Each structure stands twice: as structure tokens, then as C-alpha cells.
Automatic annotation (TrEMBL):
InterPro entries, sorted: SAM-dependent_MTases_sf, UbiG_MeTrfase
Similarity remark: Belongs to the methyltransferase superfamily. UbiG/COQ3 family.
UniProt cross-references to Gene3D superfamilies, sorted A to Z: Vaccinia Virus protein VP39
Keyword vocabulary terms for this entry: Methyltransferase, S-adenosyl-L-methionine, Transferase, Ubiquinone, Ubiquinone biosynthesis
UniProt function note: O-methyltransferase that catalyzes the 2 O-methylation steps in the ubiquinone biosynthetic pathway.
Keyword check for Transferase: yes
Species annotation: Polaromonas naphthalenivorans (strain CJ2)
Name of this protein: Ubiquinone biosynthesis O-methyltransferase
Reactions catalysed: a 3-demethylubiquinol + S-adenosyl-L-methionine = a ubiquinol + S-adenosyl-L-homocysteine + H(+); a 3-(all-trans-polyprenyl)benzene-1,2-diol + S-adenosyl-L-methionine = a 2-methoxy-6-(all-trans-polyprenyl)phenol + S-adenosyl-L-homocysteine + H(+)
The gene coding this protein: ubiG
Lineage: Bacteria, Pseudomonadati, Pseudomonadota, Betaproteobacteria, Burkholderiales
MF terms in GO: 2-polyprenyl-6-hydroxyphenol methylase activity; 3-demethylubiquinol 3-O-methyltransferase activity; polyprenyldihydroxybenzoate methyltransferase activity
């Protein structure tokens, strides 16, 4: 039986309480707005999104999903945070975004319902918030077509990540609410690679994302010590 309850109620409540601020670019979600052009261009540069069927797992208020639809993709955003989804739907109506839909369903449940249905699956800034990230990776692999692409982004687990992503971002710079991330839930690239390898997702490219707090500038690099992104491709033959 597929796992359909892979979520932490505390995490859902945390993001639901902030749902009305998703599209406020000066809110707690400012970092997501600022990194979105980077991650969008990186994805679209590896796999042109125009005309593709795309799934965004853990879409929240729809920042990435909306921007991928504007690149010409037919996007389904899924999440288990009801309030965030309502905000995403309202924004799509107000912004008149074409080609994006939202649904309250887990990745595992959708994988059982629609296996092999998407050209591209994205799962960004989400794996570190669930009890069983390997289950989500497995669902993403099941949802993408053979030869299709799955993109992840998450945070490394090491002393540098603790210092920069938790102490720095949450307690010193106040870029994120305190308690946004739990160190024990962070994921090493080697662990994510293992999850992917088991479900026939081949690593294509890994990028680090860095930030200068003085200039408030983000950029992609080869340093995966803190935030990192991974591009994978589903094997044609299992």
C-alpha cells in the first residue's frame, strides 16, 4: 500500500499560519521570491518547460508553479496545506495565470493514481520538512515518465549548513521564522543520491545556492555545502 500520510502536522500548521503572506515579497517568503528566478531558469535551461506537463510537489502558495506555467508548461501544484493552496488558487485568478491548477493531495497518493504521467516533476524546499523524504523521492520517480526529469532542492546536513541555514538565516538575519528548519531533518547529498538511485533516478547535475547577506544576492555555484539543487532523469528501463 502506498504511504499517504507522510507529513508532519506541526510543519503543516507552521506554513498554514503564514499562508496569507505567500505573495508578499517583503514577508517571511521573501527568500523564495528572490531565489525563484534562479531555480526557474536552471530548470528551464536543462529541460525547456514550454509544452510539458509538470508536477510541483509541495507547491505551497504556488511561487514556482505559477512561474513554470508562465514558461508555457501545464502545471499541477500539489500540497497538503489547505490554506496555502487557496492562496495559490486566488493568486492564479488575480494574475490570470494560464495553465496552472492546484490540488490537495500527497505525492504518494497521486503516484498511486497517476503513475508515469508527467514530463517533469519538481520538489523544491520540501524534503527537509517531511518525516520520510525517501518516500517522497519514490513517489516523484513513480509520477514522472520514463526519460522524464525530476528536480529537487534541499539543505545539506553539516556544521556549515547549521551555521548558515539555521543560526544565520533564522536567528541572526531573521530571513526566516525561527524553527523553520530542524537540523536532524536536513539531508546530505549522498543520502539524496541513495534515495534516487534506488528508484532509478540518475543524477544529471548538482548545484549549490549561495547568498551574500550584505548585497542580498543569490547565485548558483559548485558549493553544495548548504543549499543545493539536484537534476535527475528517470531511467528508460527499470
Amino acid at each position: 500500500m502506498p504511504k499517504t500520510q507522510n507529513f508532519d502536522p506541526t510543519e503543516l500548521a507552521k506554513f498554514s499560519d503564514l499562508a496569507h503572506r505567500w505573495w508578499d515579497k517583503d514577508s517571511e517568503f521573501r527568500p523564495l521570491h528572490e531565489i525563484n528566478p534562479l531555480r526557474l531558469d536552471w530548470i528551464d535551461g536543462l529541460v525547456s518547460l514550454n509544452g510539458l506537463r509538470v508536477l510541483d510537489v509541495g507547491c505551497g502558495g504556488g511561487i514556482l508553479a505559477d512561474s513554470m506555467a508562465r514558461k508555457g508548461a501545464a502545471v499541477l501544484g500539489i500540497d497538503l496545506a489547505s490554506k496555502a493552496l487557496k492562496v495559490a488558487q486566488l493568486h492564479a485568478l488575480e494574475a490570470q495565470t494560464q495553465g496552472v491548477e492546484y490540488r490537495e493531495v500527497s505525492a504518494e497518493a497521486l503516484a498511486a493514481e497517476q503513475p508515469g504521467s508527467f514530463d517533469v516533476v519538481t520538489c523544491m524546499e520540501m524534503l527537509e520538512h517531511v518525516p520520510d523524504p525517501a518516500s517522497v523521492v519514490n513517489a516523484c520517480a513513480a509520477l514522472v515518465k520514463p526519460g522524464g526529469h525530476v528536480f529537487f532542492s534541499t539543505i545539506n546536513r553539516n556544521a556549515k549548513a547549521f551555521l548558515f541555514a539555521i543560526v544565520g538565516a533564522e536567528y541572526l538575519l531573521n530571513m526566516l521564522p525561527r524553527g523553520t528548519h530542524e537540523y536532524a531533518k536536513l539531508i546530505k547529498p549522498s543520502e539524496l543520491a541513495r534515495y534516487c538511485r534506488v528508484v532509478n533516478l540518475d543524477f544529471l547535475e548538482t548545484k549549490g545556492m549561495e547568498y551574500n547577506p550584505l548585497t542580498r544576492h543569490y547565485w548558483l555555484s559548485a558549493d553544495t555545502g548548504v543549499n543545493y539543487l539536484v537534476a535527475t532523469q528517470k531511467s528508460q528501463v527499470a
